[in-house]
Amino acid sequence: PFPRLHFFAIAQAPLFSKDETSKVNLTVAEITDQMWSARNFLANIKPEDGKYLSASCGYRGNLATQEVDDEIAKVQQKMSDDFVTWIPNNIKSSIITVPPEDTPMSGTFVANNTALKAVFQR
């Protein structure tokens, strides 16, 4: 229904070198913060320049569903001004219980943000 609003911002968490693996303490909160951080986006955008239409947070690892739901609720509450008001329940989360090979947990973020228009205006 919105032909000009179909580009996705993608992020991956955690992002660190193999040397830092033992130094980083991964939690659901840390993975969630990294996924929503503009530093982890795979496109050079400033999400604060636009609005989120919807988002999907996919977690991998042996994680508690309640912990993931609590973190997503915190994001929705903290960033409520960054979402459009006419799409309710616009964050989807999922958990895949099989962890990645090199880390105990990870997250993949896909969001529809209107700030992506800046990539095409350059």
Describe this entry's structure for a reader.
The structure is a single chain. This protein is 22% helix and 25% strand. The protein has a four-stranded mixed beta sheet with strand order 1-4-2-3. It is α+β, with helices and mostly antiparallel strands. Helix 2 links the parallel strand 2 and strand 3.
Got a strand count?
4
Please give the count of helices. Answer: 3
Poorly predicted runs: none
* Helix/strand class: alpha+beta
The chain-level mean pLDDT equals 88
Share of helix among residues?
A: 10-25%
Reconstruct the topology from this structure.
Elements: E1 8-13, H1 28-35, E2 52-61, H2 65-78, E3 91-96, E4 105-113, H3 117-121
Parallel strand pairs: 2-3
Antiparallel strand pairs: 1-4, 2-4
Task: Describe the structure concisely.
The protein is of the alpha+beta class and 122 residues long. The protein has helices at residues 28-35, 65-78, 117-121, and strands at residues 8-13, 52-61, 91-96, 105-113.
What key attributes describe this structure?
about 20% helix; single chain; globular; alpha+beta; about 120 residues; 4 strands
